[in-house]
Design goal:
The complex is a heterodimer of chains A (about 850) and B (about 120). With about 850 residues, chain A is an alpha+beta fold. Chain A has 28 helices and 26 strands. The longest helix of chain A has about 40 residues. The two termini of chain A are about 75 Å apart. About 0% of the residues of chain A have low confidence. The longest helix of chain B has 20 residues. Chain B has about 120 residues and is mainly α. The two termini of chain B are about 30 Å apart. The chains are: A alpha+beta (about 850), B mainly alpha (about 120). Chains A and B meet through helix 2 and helix 3 of A and helix 2 and helix 3 of B.
Chain lengths: ~850, ~120
């Protein structure tokens, strides 16, 4: 009986043996049979593998015939030659690999980000049919876009329109505090929801019945992680949780899986809508809830939206005179937005979470393409620059009979090899840089099993395309040399012939110039913002956001006021850096109403904020009539046309008459992107009030400690939610600061890549002209002369780049600055710095190579003559 | 004298063994013969690489035998030392003998008298 090796071994044999040596396979088979008989299967197998290993090199040594079917041989030969070529020039190769890897890594990270952003809210089974109802309000000329609607809209839509299958309302429950044993923990991701939540959204329930989970008044549904956090286990249906603010008990009726990160809202707790006092309100012009509708399959949402105006009008007419309302130029309208569009395209009032923006995606995508383009350009540049060296090789090969096709394949495989190595390096780079990228982009991207395959696949595809594209030009260019020209030495090896190459260098450096200017302009604007006089003093102000947690916040205010180092304290929900906002209409006499910011404050507000009164006086606790006093800002005064006799005037708001007691200097509230609009102050209480504490200069930490102690005394079991006003202010410019970081990084990247390219190019320019240099040196040229001569060509290119980059930057940054109502002029010095910097960097790069070349002993170069 | 490629030790052994085997000098047989006669292990890779190189240099000539039912239908490749190869072998042997003759008596303690 023939003892043959297992099938796998036979396959291995076919792979590892050269095709022309079938006798080798025969020897293996014979040997195997002999061993199997004498020593046993196991040893036969073992030794078979050992021998196979020893035979592998033979495959590369045996020269196969170039039959068309013998692609494996062709590939190995190419591979050998390619790797030999690359190793011969380690410097050039590593330059190329690093440059391309940088570009690929950046591209990878950005693609990761973009794909993540595009994938929000996809996990719902019915995501195609889910829409959110938006509200548009035009009142007194001010248009507001809301992500929320009136309470009865959800139900009315379902009962009126057959296309609307189900609806659900969600609203965030702020300042929720749950008891855990003796502790009280503040939870920020608590939502109130109708019982139809699970009919619309796909939130897999681990324990409990989705159909009935939120029907009972005090029911609640929590996530897995919360169950573990509060009970150390997951099957907690039936347990109760105590809400500390109003001591209400809630029974857990369901536990769901944690909500995926890629959602426009992420909740830890859902409480039944019954908790909300306004849930059953029938008023159609009060906007409270985020309303979602599930439409029937194949429903036409556009047709449905056309029916909305009549629908809304008929309901609004029950509580207001719609005709008069609309005659005055006002309107209330509702429309639908697809669930999948919310994350990237919705930035309205009342959003459930912080949304991204499509704008960011575009910017990122453009930057990714740019950087990749720069890297590919480099690759092409460096490859073609070596053409002089390869020319002789190409000439000889052609004489020996190489087909052009073979040469192209040869060069293509070289470029594929480099690209492949770059891809691997890029993956490593991206892996290492991911945490930093997350920080800058404000995301939490992780490589998981699912997206790893996609990412790696994407990189390989990009690398492949890049390899082919970048390899084509050099491949065809190089293989196009005529052998006779090369061997006779007539080939134009100067740099003047490389018009495309010059164009590529110019592109790279104009990009760099542009980015440098951009960085400087953003920096300048941010500094301007930081140092501008805003009309209030944000330094040394502590803000306690949850002062309202106490039954009587006034006690806290008085106690804190007594502490040493505290200059002023004020209770108000309205802060220049954020917090409550309320607009109201004020009118004077019978004139048309003016919509303005209407802020409630106390008598200490103005001194605490460091604001200045330009006319009149502040509120005073001691004057009884001050309960109807109003302080207006300069803009309001201007709009109302008040100059001298303003203290006689009375202002009407919400059917109450106020008398003006003072005018306050304009201050910037919200961000400096917006103009200062009319704003007024009246005395009043707001249950959302924060306590603002102005502290004396160096005492901040000490005072903070004491405030904490006072708090603990008055509000045991509650965490003090505080911040400092200057930090809050900085947070308003998060987007800009992030942009600044991005710009700095991309500028650095662009410059690095451009310099890598220039470094390589100047090296080869110098090398090509080495004989010329030596002769000049012998004839008496100084080092300086030589360096200048070598650099001149490149400097011309760099200057052209600057001439292109500067106007481009001017245009773009000018338009960016326009988005700020308050801005500094375009800093003229930034153009000079950018131009000078670019030239300097380019010079340094070039001169390193030029110096090296100029210092070579002429004898070395002229030896071969 | 023209620049003659000097023969490696293993290559010499292989060629001599082929001479020993005569008609039946194919890959596996050569390996087994060297292993049994000289008590050293020969890897398949080393052997076949050597055979290939020797043939490239022109010292060996090979031809495929008939395909038979054994060995999975793969034929055996039989090797023969060419004239050029024989010349090289002879010259190598002569070089060694020359040197042995010149070694004075008693220098190699192991064999006081020369072979």
């Amino acid at each position: 009986m023939m003892k043959t090796p297992p099938k796998f071994f036979l396959w291995l044999l076919d792979v590892c043996c050269p095709a022309s040596r079938s006798d080798l396979k025969g020897d293996f088979l014979e040997l195997y049979e002999y061993r199997a008989k004498e020593v046993g299967r196991f040893h036969a197998n073992l030794n078979f593998l050992k021998d196979i290993l020893s035979v592998v090199p033979l495959k590369f040594i045996v020269r196969e015939e170039f039959k068309s079917g013998n692609s494996m041989a062709l590939a190995t030969v190419n591979f050998k030659i390619a790797s030999r070529n690359l190793l011969k020039n380690k410097g050039f190769t590593s330059l190329n690999i690093i440059g391309l890897a940088l570009g690929l890594a950046t591209c990878m990270l950005i693609v990761f980000y973009v794909i993540d952003e595009l994938g929000y809210d996809r996990y719902h089974a019915k995501s195609d049919r889910i829409f959110r109802v938006n509200t548009e309000l035009n009142y007194g000329g001010a248009i507001t876009s809301f992500a929320i609607t009136a309470p009865p809209v959800a139900n009315a839509l379902v009962t009126t329109f057959p296309e609307a299958e189900k609806s659900v309302r969600l609203v965030q429950n702020i300042n929720t505090r749950f008891a855990k044993g003796s502790e009280v923990i503040q939870e920020d991701r608590v939502f109130l929801s109708d019982s139809t939540l699970f009919d619309v959204f796909t939130l897999p329930m681990i324990h409990g019945n989705p159909a009935s989970a939120l029907t009972a008044p005090n029911s609640m549904v929590i996530t897995e992680s919360m169950a573990r956090k509060y009970f150390n286990r997951v099957d907690v249906v039936g347990e109760t949780m105590l809400e500390a603010n109003d001591s209400s008990l809630h029974t857990i009726t369901g536990v769901i899986e944690d909500i995926p990160r890629q959602s426009h809202f992420v909740a830890d707790f859902f409480l039944s809508m019954h908790v909300h006092r306004g849930a059953n309100d029938v008023n159609f012009n009060k906007f409270t809830f985020n309303t979602y509708v599930l439409l029937k399959a194949r429903a036409d949402e556009r047709a449905l939206q056309k029916k909305f105006p009549d629908f809304l009008k008929s309901h609004l007419s029950n509580s207001m005179n719609v005709e008069l309302f609309e005659k005055n130029g006002n309107y209330i309208r509702i429309n639908l937005i697809a669930l999948k569009d919310i994350h990237l395209h919705s930035n309205r009032q009342g959003e459930l979470g912080i949304n991204g923006s499509a704008g960011y995606i575009y910017i990122f995508a453009i930057i990714a393409t740019l950087i990749l383009a720069l890297a590919c350009i480099n690759f092409m540049n460096l490859s073609t620059a070596r053409s002089a060296h390869r020319a002789r090789e190409v000439g000889i090969r052609k004489v020996m009979g190489s087909l052009r096709k073979q040469l192209v394949m040869q060069f293509l495989s070289e470029s594929m090899l480099v690209t492949f190595l770059s891809a691997v390096t890029a993956m490593l780079m991206a892996w290492i840089l991911l945490p930093y990228f997350n920080e800058i982009a404000g995301k939490n991207l992780h490589v998981t099993m699912e997206n790893a395959a996609g990412l790696v696949g994407a990189v390989i595809i990009i690398a492949f395309i890049v390899g082919i594209l970048s390899g084509f030009y050099p491949a065809f260019f190089l293989s196009g040399f005529q052998p006779i020209h090369v061997l006779k030495g007539k080939l134009a090896t100067g740099f003047k012939g490389g018009r495309l190459r010059n164009f590529l260098v110019i592109f790279q450096f104009s990009m760099s110039t542009f980015l440098i200017i951009g960085t400087l302009v953003i920096y300048n604007q941010l500094e301007y913002i930081r140092n501008k006089d805003l009309g209030f003093d944000r330094q040394q102000v502590l803000i306690i956001k949850n002062a309202s947690a106490l039954g009587n916040p006034l006690i806290l205010k008085e106690e804190v006021q007594q502490l040493p180092g505290v200059m002023h304290t004020s209770l108000s929900g309205y802060l220049p850096t954020g917090g409550a906002r309320w607009k109201n209409n004020i009118s004077v006499g019978h004139e048309r109403a003016l919509l303005c910011e209407f802020w409630l404050a106390d008598a200490d507000y103005i001194p605490t904020m460091g604001m200045t009164l330009v006319k009149g006086r502040n509120f005073s606790e001691d004057i009884a009539s001050d309960s109807l006093a109003i302080i207006i800002n300069e803009t309001t005064a201007k709009v109302l046309g008040y100059t001298t006799d303003l203290f006689e005037k009375s202002i009407r708001a919400s059917n109450v008459d106020y008398h003006v007691i003072g005018v306050i200097k304009d201050f910037n509230f919200n961000s400096l992107r917006d103009n200062i609009t009319p704003l007024v102050f009246v005395l009043g209480d707001d249950w959302r009030a924060s306590l603002a504490v102005r502290m004396e200069g160096q005492q901040a930490t000490i005072v903070l400690e004491q405030v904490k102690r006072t708090w603990a005394k008055l509000a045991p079991g509650h965490q003090m939610d505080y911040s400092f006003m200057d930090k809050d202010f900085d947070a308003l410019y998060n987007t800009e600061q992030r942009m600044q970081k991005l710009f700095v990084i991309f500028t650095a990247l662009a410059i690095i890549i451009a310099c890598l390219g220039l470094f390589g190019l100047s090296a080869y320019a110098a090398e090509q002209r080495n004989r010329e240099i030596s002769i000049r040196k012998v004839l008496g040229a100084s080092i300086t002369n030589l360096v200048a001569m070598l650099s001149m060509d490149f400097i011309k290119l760099v200057i052209t780049s600057i001439l292109i980059g500067v106007p481009l930057a001017w245009l773009m940054m000018q338009s960016w600055l326009q988005s700020f109502a308050y801005r500094d002029a375009l800093p003229w010095w930034s153009f000079f710095v950018a131009a000078g910097g670019t030239i300097l960097i380019a010079l340094l790069t070039i001169s390193f190579q030029s110096f090296k070349a100029a210092l070579i002993n002429p004898a070395e170069n002229l030896k071969g003559e | 004298m023209s620049a003659k490629n000097n023969l490696g030790e293993f290559e010499e052994i292989v060629m001599l063994t082929i001479g020993v085997l005569g008609e039946n000098a194919y890959g596996l047989a050569i390996k087994v013969e060297i292993e049994t006669r000289l008590n050293r292990t020969v890897s398949m890779g080393a052997l076949h690489t050597g055979l290939y190189r020797l043939e490239e240099k022109g010292y060996l000539k090979s031809k495929l035998g008939e395909a038979t039912k054994v060995r999975g239908g793969k034929p055996k490749r039989f090797f023969e030392v060419t004239a050029k190869g024989q010349k090289v072998l002879k010259s190598a042997m002569e070089d060694r003998q020359k040197l042995w003759k010149e070694i004075p008596e008693g220098v190699f303690k192991l064999f006081p008298s020369n072979l």
